[in-house]
Amino acid sequence: MEIGTFTGYSALTMALSIEKDGLITCLDKNEETSIIANNFFKKAKVDNKINLVCGTASDNLNKLLKENNFFDLIFIDADKEKYINYYELAYKLISKNGLIIIDNVLWKGEVTDLNKNDKLTKIIREFNTHIKKDQRIEKTILPIGDGITICRKL
Predict the structure, then answer these.
(1) What is the pLDDT of residue 34?
(2) Which of 88-119 are b and which e, b meaning 16 or more Cβ less than 10 Å from the residue's Cβ?
(3) How many other β-carbons are positioned within 10 Å of the β-carbon of residue 10?
(4) What is the pLDDT of residues 57-86, one digit of tens each?
(5) Which of 137, 88, 13, 147 is nearest to 2 (CA)?
């Protein structure tokens, strides 16, 4: 699953890598970018592997929970203000030993600069602290790009 699809680059990369019968559920709230993403999926001939759901991620995650859906991998790259909420919902939806991957956790390196105290930098710091304290998972931060945290459910 992908939370925050935008124009579909990450989902497309995953769809090209998964087995023939694999399926990726993508959640995004923006109808315009969802149309762009769907067009890319069709051009790449992977639209049969992707279920793009438009609407708020929280609502759709709660719906998936009620339907008892479980996922092997969940990639979070959406509105940073809701990262903790998305993570907690993702934790409930992830299979045992499944991976939750979160993008932008180093926030252009600003999370390590304690002089940077803008709203989003503080939010990402709080999220990183939340993950650090979570004993239900194994976790690591990869300092590539804008930083990625990989969590494995125990």
Answers:
(1) 97
(2) ebbbebbeeebbbbbbbbbbeebbeeeeeeee
(3) 19
(4) 999 999 999 999 999 999 999 999 999 999
(5) 13
Torsion angle, alpha carbons of 128, 147, 115, 85, to 10: -30
In the chain, the DSSP E strands lie at 2-3, 24-28, 50-54, 71-76, 94-103, 137-142, 148-153
The dihedral through the CA atoms of 18, 142, 94, 111 has a sign that is negative
> What pLDDT sits at residue 78?
97
**N-to-C CA span, the chain:** 19
Phi, psi (5° rounding) for residue 112? -90, -15
- Over range 29-44, report the average pLDDT: 97
Domain segments of the chain as ranges: 2-153
Which CATH architecture does the domain made up of 2-153 adopt? 3-Layer(aba) Sandwich (3.40)
Question: What pTM does this model have?
Answer: 0.96
The identity of residue 104, as a single letter, is N
Amino acid sitting at position 139: K
CB 37 within 8 A of CB 6: yes
